[in-house]
């Protein structure tokens, strides 16, 4: 199975990429997957050009095709101003709006403070619901303090959240129904339709 990881981290090294890698590794421990990581920072100019010209270049088109063909997706973004990054949203805007239909998706985000964790529910989850993806119940948010393993009596640690979300995605991947082959309806020429009507009169 093919698992594509889309990460919108801007810096290098990036906590967003680190979270993406940990999620991918956790899924790979639970299901046999071939992982491909897509760094959107490397495609920023390609994405902008696609908006201006109206079509993606070869490199961006190849990435879009890989996302469309994947069996599952992990999507990770930094949180800016209480929502996903513009680069993250722009990438999914240039995809065909049917690319993620029925596809299992794990959403995750990083930010400086835990106050932005609800961005996963009010921004990312609705975005992927609109794209008709199947989003796993557990969304993973990593604030700065999470990387130290901090937790309190009311929240799971980052490792537990990663494990739970990875298991949910793996379960969807392992039990996903095979893709239905598209059926092309035969087009009957208008003249033949008229002739058939005349014969019945």
TrEMBL record:
GO molecular function annotation: oxidoreductase activity
Source taxon at top rank: Bacteria
Entry keyword set: Flavoprotein, FMN, Oxidoreductase
Signal sequence extent: none
Keyword Oxidoreductase annotated: yes
NADPH-dependent FMN reductase-like domain ranges (all copies): 1-147
Coiled-coil residue spans: none
Gene3D superfamilies noted in UniProt: 3.40.50.360
NCBIfam families: LLM_duo_CE1759
Protein name as annotated: Oxidoreductase
Organism: [Actinomadura] parvosata subsp. kistnae
């Amino acid at each position: 199975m093919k698992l594509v990881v889309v990460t919108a981290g801007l810096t290098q090294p990036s906590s967003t990429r680190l979270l993406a890698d940990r999620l991918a590794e956790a899924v790979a421990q639970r299901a046999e997957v071939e992982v491909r990581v897509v760094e959107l920072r490397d495609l920023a100019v390609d994405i902008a050009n696609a908006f201006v010209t109206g079509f993606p270049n070869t490199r961006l088109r190849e990435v879009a095709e890989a996302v469309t063909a994947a069996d599952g997706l992990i999507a990770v973004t930094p949180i800016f101003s209480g929502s996903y990054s513009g680069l993250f949203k722009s990438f999914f805007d240039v995809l065909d709006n049917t690319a993620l239909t029925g596809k299992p998706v794990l959403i995750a985000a990083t930010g400086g403070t835990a106050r932005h964790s609800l961005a996963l529910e009010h921004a990312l989850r609705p975005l992927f619901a609109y794209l008709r993806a199947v989003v796993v119940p557990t969304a993973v948010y990593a604030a700065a303090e999470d990387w130290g393993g901090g937790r309190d009596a009311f929240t799971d640690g980052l490792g537990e959240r990663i494990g739970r979300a990875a298991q949910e995605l793996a379960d969807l991947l392992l039990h996903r129904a095979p893709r239905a082959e598209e059926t092309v309806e035969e087009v009957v020429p208008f003249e033949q339709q008229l002739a058939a009507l005349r014969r019945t009169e």
